[in-house]
Amino acid sequence: MIRKQAITQIEDLEWHSVEEIPGLRYKFLIDSDVTSSRGLSLGALEVAPGAILPPHHHSPQEIYLFHSGEGEVILGDEIHQVRAGTAVFIPEHCWHGLINKGDQPLAFYWIFPTDSWSEIEYIYDKSSAK
Ligand code: NI
Hints:
By secondary structure, this protein is mainly β.
């Protein structure tokens, strides 16, 4: 199979939002739903001041790389401060979430070892924790 190259520019991409979670918006930079890529995917998420990305887990591992703002990440049973330059490795099925306690958007990139974000099954329910 021929692997095609892909290049995107963040400001050219449209924001998406989550109806059930106010204060979040995201873009897909490298994702098989928008680029001719596979095996890896990259997106950008912004959390508004005071907003929360609720704790969840999923079967693929994930990386967060923060580039703007300040906040707290929930990782397993720990809470850590995050800011520009913080990288977080999230193992398979590890609980994680975010709180923006600053007065600026908390912005980061996510990376999944999957073709696309849309194939990730998000689990928010504690009762189904593995
Ligand atoms: Ni996640």
